[in-house]
Structure to design on (673 residues):
């Protein structure tokens, strides 16, 4: 990246902005000094942003529909915008009103349903001048037994009872003491039985729901006619606003302007040429010095999907190695080794493919995960495992038993993981040592390019030396190991200070952390076997029901397992990179290269 | 009780208690992390790293259990 400044008189401002926008190459640095003023946005900016706000609010209210009509011209959209907004708002208001009525009716229905079975008209429940009524969940048996009062009558329903009585305070207290829930009558007037009232309210509810859906379909219709037109106008205006507001990032005086920003070094001349040509040489372009340039990943296409995994952690700094390639080298293999099952490799691939098709925003991540699936299949074939069944070799070969294909028994199993899980442990630890040292190596290189050999050796080499001294101490005794270890600690202290020394135990815990590979592998094998074990007795029954039930268990169980394993493999695999490995070299915190105008091209 | 039985219980306790500790801390960190993400979703990487740090505890538990069980 090269930092440049463009200076010119104000009457060239618009030309320069249009050119920069069309090229989409310059990442403009906002001016926030105090000596000069920031520029004023172009006159039309305010008007445009106002329209844009209206369009966006309209868009947010319009539902998604298929086949959302033809694009409309901007003028037509602008013309209709206010009217459309009014109509949509009216519909929304009506919808809201209907919704609250629906809620209200539902609430009333809930209360009325409690009154079912009480053989009284609704109006009678309200009481009269001389008689009171009490409705609720009442323990009527007890009430009858305990009461000495005569002037009452009980009407029992399915869930609640109504008591009609001549007012009497003592009796009222007695009722209350035997009542679990008092029911308050809704404020309604209705001539007829409770049953007919419930039916009435049910009809009301249906009617309200119909009205609501007809309002919703009105919105759909507007959407069908206008949505895509509004969308394209929104994009067009957003671009225009971006251009019109660009001067806010510029520094200006009364007559002149200056703007600074970053362009890719190899494009510098192109930018210079285009600007000089369109302004007929009336501006001045200069290379500037600056720090903290924005970064853009620069990787061969095979590594590109893994950039998003790096950025998920943090965007790399300008002058450090982009670790995406490391993720490509070790993440899919790690995922594959942990899951290690050809069957789950295929099913997880299907899941990622579906994700790739359905979530366009996360396509890169799904692409990188498809690599992980590919390695899962590879390791699965090497382990001779598919859905927890043995598929190769002459030992318990389930696939051979099913198909009778002889060649399956002749394919050797490279490593029978399910039977030798114990051997996964040293493999996991060894991978940890390799992975962490790869991290130190990259850290060494970063330090070497930025601060020279001595610094690199003190900060990163001392760690490797510490590991070597531990190995030496183990092989040749403490006489050699301890002094070597002390030297490396001293170097480490010089390189990283006391923080480095405090961090020493974390080296052990980081390597131990790779034992999770073993843990996930055990779980991967066991989970598959559990599902097969559940299905096996059903298949052995030999009946139709048994076979159908067994198949159902297999399908459900292995689908469930697929998702569990994707989650485990991804999270554990990526964390070993982010925490254990990146911790050894990665700084991150860079700023992504976001050239002016590129988003709209 | 036979010594193997005691060892097995010890191994179970090593994994189990370490897992409870991990779960407890992870729950707290996770809850705070989700709060941070609601404010600014570019923090995802950092939040993920912070959330998974306590996992080391249960790995230690696993290692201790494997040693007790005579696996290593």
């Amino acid at each position: 990246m090269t930092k440049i400044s463009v200076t010119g008189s104000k009457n060239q401002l618009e030309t320069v902005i249009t050119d920069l926008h069309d090229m989409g190459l310059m990442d403009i640095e906002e001016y926030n000094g105090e000596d000069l003023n920031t520029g004023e946005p172009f006159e039309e900016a305010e008007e445009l942003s106002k329209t844009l706000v209206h369009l966006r609010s309209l868009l947010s209210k319009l539902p998604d529909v298929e086949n959302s009509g033809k694009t409309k011209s901007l003028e037509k959209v602008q013309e209709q915008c206010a009217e459309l907004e009014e109509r949509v708002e009216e519909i929304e208001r009506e919808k809201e009103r209907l919704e609250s009525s629906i809620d209200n009716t539902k609430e009333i229905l809930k209360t009325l349903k409690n009154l079912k079975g009480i053989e009284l008209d609704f109006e009678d429940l309200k009481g009269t001048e001389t008689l009171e009524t009490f409705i609720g969940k009442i323990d009527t048996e007890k009430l009858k037994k305990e009461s000495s009062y005569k002037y009452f009558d009980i009407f029992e329903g399915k869930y609640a009872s109504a008591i009609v009585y001549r007012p009497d305070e003592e009796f009222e207290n007695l009722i209350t003491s035997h009542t679990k829930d008092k029911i308050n009558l809704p404020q309604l007037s209705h001539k007829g039985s409770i049953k007919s009232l419930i039916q009435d309210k049910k009809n009301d509810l249906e009617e309200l729901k119909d009205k609501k859906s007809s309002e919703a379909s009105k919105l759909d219709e507007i959407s069908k006619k206008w949505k895509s037109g509004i969308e394209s106008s929104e994009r067009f205006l957003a671009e225009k606003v971006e251009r019109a507001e660009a001067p806010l990032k510029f520094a200006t005086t009364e007559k002149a302007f200056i703007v600074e920003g970053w362009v890719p070094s190899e494009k510098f001349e192109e930018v210079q040429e285009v600007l000089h040509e369109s302004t007929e040489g009336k501006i001045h372009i200069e290379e500037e010095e600056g720090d903290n340039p924005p970064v853009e990943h620069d990787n061969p296409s095979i590594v590109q999907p893994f950039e998003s995994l790096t950025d998920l952690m943090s965007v790399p700094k300008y002058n450090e190695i982009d670790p995406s390639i490391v993720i490509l080298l070790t993440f899919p293999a790690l995922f594959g080794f942990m899951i290690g099952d050809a069957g789950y490799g295929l099913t997880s691939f299907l899941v990622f493919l579906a994700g790739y098709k359905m979530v366009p925003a996360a396509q890169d991540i799904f692409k990188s995960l498809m690599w992980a699936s590919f390695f899962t299949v590879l390791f699965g074939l090497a382990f001779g495992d598919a859905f927890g069944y043995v598929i190769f070799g002459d030992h318990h070969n389930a696939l051979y038993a099913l198909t009778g294909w002889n060649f399956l028994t002749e394919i050797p199993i490279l490593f029978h993981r399910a039977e030798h899980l114990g051997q996964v442990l040293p493999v996991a630890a060894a991978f940890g040592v390799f992975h962490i040292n790869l991290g130190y190596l990259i850290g060494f290189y970063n330090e070497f390019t930025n601060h020279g050999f001595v610094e690199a050796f003190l900060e990163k080499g001392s760690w490797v030396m510490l590991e070597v001294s531990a190995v030496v101490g183990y092989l040749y005794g403490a006489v050699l190991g301890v002094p070597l270890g002390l030297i490396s600690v001293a170097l480490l202290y010089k390189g990283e200070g006391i923080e480095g020394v405090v961090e020493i135990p974390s080296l052990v815990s980081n390597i131990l952390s790779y034992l999770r590979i073993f843990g996930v592998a055990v779980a991967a094998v066991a989970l598959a076997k559990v599902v097969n074990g559940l299905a096996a007795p059903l298949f052995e029954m030999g009946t139709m029901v048994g076979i159908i039930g067994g198949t159902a268990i297999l399908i459900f169980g292995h689908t469930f397992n697929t998702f569990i394993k994707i989650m485990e493999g991804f999270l554990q695999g990526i964390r070993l990179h982010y925490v254990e490995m990146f911790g050894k070299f990665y700084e991150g915190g860079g700023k992504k290269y976001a050239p002016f105008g590129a988003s709209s091209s | 009780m036979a010594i193997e039985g005691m060892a097995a219980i010890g191994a179970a306790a090593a994994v189990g208690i370490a897992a409870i500790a991990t779960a407890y801390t992870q729950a707290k960190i996770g809850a705070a992390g989700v709060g941070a993400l609601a404010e600014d979703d570019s923090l995802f990487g950092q939040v993920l790293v912070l959330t998974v740090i306590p996992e080391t505890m249960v790995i230690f538990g696993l290692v201790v259990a494997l040693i007790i069980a005579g696996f290593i």
